[in-house]
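Quick sanity check, Aldo/keto reductase:
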Amino acid sequence: DTAEHYGYTDGYSEKKVGDFFCEDQDAGSLDRSRVVLATKYLPTPWRHPWRYPNIVLDSFHGSIQRTRLGGIDIYQLHGPSHAGYWPRLETLCDSLVSAYKTGKCRAIGVCNLSFQQVKLVYTHLKRNDVPLVSNQVEFSLVRQDPWTEGMIEKCHKLGLTTTSIAVIAYSPIALGRLTGKYDRSNRPRGNRNFGDIDWDKIQPIVDELKRIGAKVNKSPAAVAMNWVICKGAIPIPTVKNREQVVDCLQALGWRLDQDDEDRLD
């Protein structure tokens, strides 16, 4: 999962993704069928199809060129607004349909949309035989709204006639706050806005993650991501090193028992 605006400059992250996969392609070790590549278009007042009809297609083709895999599996609308700017979703939907119709996009996704907005996009795309497969939102033990407000269940039910609409959870470990690495006296540094709540509320959750992790021989991060999975969402944590890859793998292939899940709730 990447985006045209991730990184130091526009397209930086996408280019790095493309470089990584091309190394595997050159070595003959890349199985393209096992890669799900998702990227995003960000609507802004100065890059909106209402004013510039071809801007989404231009961005789409730019993403394909930078990622160098020949196509995008899930092309996502990064959000309904940017800097307080609220364009018409219908106009954005028309542009997403155009991207899908190029044949170089397998499905459309959205990010940071309310369920009512998801429903609007789903209905618009369905009229054009375009699949909406996902809504990517912040979801973790410290940001439970997608579950408590019924977003996950509603998205799953909305897509039952075709393909269930998945809820993809970004910041599932609250940008490191749920790993057990940090505490009140040693907090994460830098710009980590997601999952940034009062530490007095975070610490009891971390303590419980450690207790459960010791019982099931998993890291606190793996337990936190497994909770996300148990709630019906797909966690996509940031990975920077081998240890974090192991944490992600530890989250798979098992489920919290009901008592532990309830305690974390």
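Posting the structure with no commentary besides this: The longest strand covers residues 105-111.
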